[in-house]
Amino acid sequence: MADPLIDPCCKIGGGIDERSLSMRASSVRTLHSSMQHSARTGKKPRNALVALPDEDADVFNIYVQWHYYEKIPCQKSEDENGYPMLGKLYVLGEKVLDKKLQDRVLDAIVATTRRKTENGMRFFPSRQVIKEIYGSTTSNSPARRLMVDLDVVHALAPWVGADETEHHPDFMFDLTKALIVERALTEEAKSAHAELASGIPCSYHQHGKDEVCSAKKL
Ligand SMILES: [Zn+2]
Q1: Cα-Cα-Cα-Cα dihedral of 107, 108, 111, 115, to 10°?
Q2: How far is the CA of 210 from the centre of ligand 1 (A)?
């Protein structure tokens, strides 16, 4: 016999991606009120299709599994392929105010950064994933802080890329601040900039290398 509490009462995604999802009516009610659809439509979710056209059906499906089993099925990914889904799940957690889910998503992200492939490669969230997280969170978000800290500890120069639009501007701002706060100059870097301490900053002058420098120490 069919469970009388389960109705096909969630319509996720829009256009060709639209799917119906069966959930316990009580769960749908919880989600429904979290997402503040009730207030807008005034409809009760039981026996009514709840339309969530902006949600990604795959992400929402994972969220439903989380809702029932408190497990994130995509958290075992060993390379960067798991990050987009984790990022979207975090953003959904922000919408439905599910802090526990968000904590577990950050755990899964950290676990993925620690895994190594057979070649010793490690993978970190892409600029696109960081952009999505930044686009859906506020300045005090722990996920934002994690994205910055991963770069402070692990980033290589090529991660900056060639196109500034690859980055969320707030991320670059936060990263710059964090790097300045945590910077420790090597002896090599200090000696490379020794002219700043010497008072004759000749490498900034526009005279030729074979011309005599006319600067006087001020
Ligand atoms: Zn000079």
Answers
A1: -170
A2: 10
Is residue 21 domain-resident?
yes
Same domain, 82 and 41: no
Q: pTM of the predicted model, to two decimals?
A: 0.77
Same domain, 164 and 115: yes
Q: How far is the CA of 186 from the centre of ligand 1 (A)?
A: 25
Q: Tell me whether residue 5 is in a domain.
A: yes
Distance 198 CA to ligand 1 centre (A): 12
Mean pLDDT of all residues in 42-56: 58
Residues 8 and 91 in one domain: no
pLDDT tens digit sequence for 116-156: 888 999 999 999 999 999 999 999 999 999 999 999 999 99
Distance 188 CA to ligand 1 centre (A): 22
